[in-house]
Fold:
Amino acid sequence: MVNKKKKGVKEKSHFQLLKDEWLKRHRRARHQLHRKHKETFEAVVDKFPAKDKLAHGAIGALMLSSVLPSSPAIISTIADKPQEPAQEIEVDRTNELVGELKTVAGDNVRELSIEEEAKVGEILSRYFKAQISAEIDGKRLNRSYGVIGAEQHLVRFPSDSMASHLEVQVENNKQSFSVNKQSFSVNKMIYSSGMAPGRGAWGYFAKSKAEFTLEDLEREKWYIAVQTFAAPNYNQKLSEYRDFFKYRKMLVVNVKTGQAIVCDIADAGPAQWTGKHLGGSPEVMYYLGFGEGSRKGGVLYFFVDDIDNKIPLGPVVAR
Amino acid sequence: MKKLQKHFYSNLLDLDSLEIDLDMLDITGSEKDELLELAHVHVHQAVMDAILSELNDADKKRFLELMAEGRDEKIWEHLNNKVERIEDRITEAAHAIKKEMREDIKKVKARTSDA
Structure:
C-alpha cells in the first residue's frame, strides 16, 4: 500500500477527487431514477411499514432520502449565516459548555467510550436541565459523537408540498404557523433544500392535512435521521427498537459552538459509506450553524429522557 | 476488503477491473473500500434503471416487492417472463457504468500526475 503524500493545502487527494466525482454522478443518477420511477417506488414503500429496515436493502438504497447524498448544491450558495438568536435567556453559559465538552470529547469526531459518554451526559444534563444520556433502558445508537449532514424536508401528509412547508394552517387546533417571520434568505435556504422523494422512516406525520397537528409540524421541522439500523442488536429486536426510536427526542449539540437543538428521530440513515453519521432537517442544520458551506460538522447526539413529553422540540441554550 | 451487499444479479457481475484500477491510485485500504462501495451503488442504480425501464407499472411494482422481500428465484422468474434477454440487459448496463467509472479513475490519476 502506498502512503499518502503530503500535498498542498488546496490540492485534493486521489480519494477525495474520485469520491467527489462519484458522489456527483450518484446524485445525477438518483434524480434520474426518481424522476422516471418515483410513483412505483412510493407505492412499494407503502406496503412495507418497516421502512427503516428497507434502508439497508436493495431497493431502500434507491428510494430513501437519508440513505443517499441528497442535498442540492445550490443550498450552500444561497444560505446566509444565522442571524437570529435561538432563544431569549437570562444567562447564556454556552462558552462554559463548549469548554467542558472539549475537555471530554475533543474537537475531532470519534467514538466515545462508555465513561466519556457518561461524563458528556452529565455535562449536558447540567447545562440543559434535563436527563440526557447516550443510553436509555439498555438501548443506544451505534455512536454518540458523529458528523451530521444536511437532509431534505420530509413529506408530512399526502399532497404536502414545498409551498405548504413555508406556511401551514394547522386545522385541528386552529393555530397558524409561518416561517415567514424569518429573513428572506433563511426561508430561501429552507425552501430550496427541497423535499425528499420518499417518506420518513415512520411514514407520513399525519394521515391528511386536516389531521395535521402542530406536534406533527414540529416533528418534521426538527427531525434528524440516525443510523437506527446500525444500533447494537437492532436486527434481533426490530419491533422493540422501532418503537423506541420513533420520534425519540435527542439533544444535538455543535461541539465547536455549543449551538443545541432538541430534535426527534424521524428517519433512518445516512448510509455508513457516506462518512456521515446522522442527518438534520434544513432547520436543524441552520440552527446548529451548518446552514452554509459544506453543511456538515461534528455534533454530540444524546437521548433526552422525556417520558412525560414536556420538553419542546427546537433550539435550546445552555444555562 | 469490506464485503459488499449481494443482489440477485451479483453472480453476473464483478468489480474486479475497477478494483485493479483503484490500486493505481494513491489511496489507503479503507478509502479503496469506500470507493468500491460507492461503485457498487452506482452499478446497482444502473442495473435497476435498466430493468425498471423495461417493465410496465404493474410489473415494476411486482419486481420491487420481490426485491424488498429478497426472493431471488421469483425475481428471475418474473423478469424472464417479462423481458427478453434480461441477463444481457443487466450486464450491458453494468458494463457501461463500469466503463464510465474507469474513465473517472483514469482522469483522476492523470490530473494529479500532471500537477
The CA atoms of residues 158 and 208 of chain A lie 6 Å apart. The first strand of chain A starts at residue 132 and ends at 133. Residues 71-316 of chain A form a domain with the Barwin-like endoglucanases fold (CATH 2.40.40.10). Chain A has one domain: 71-316.
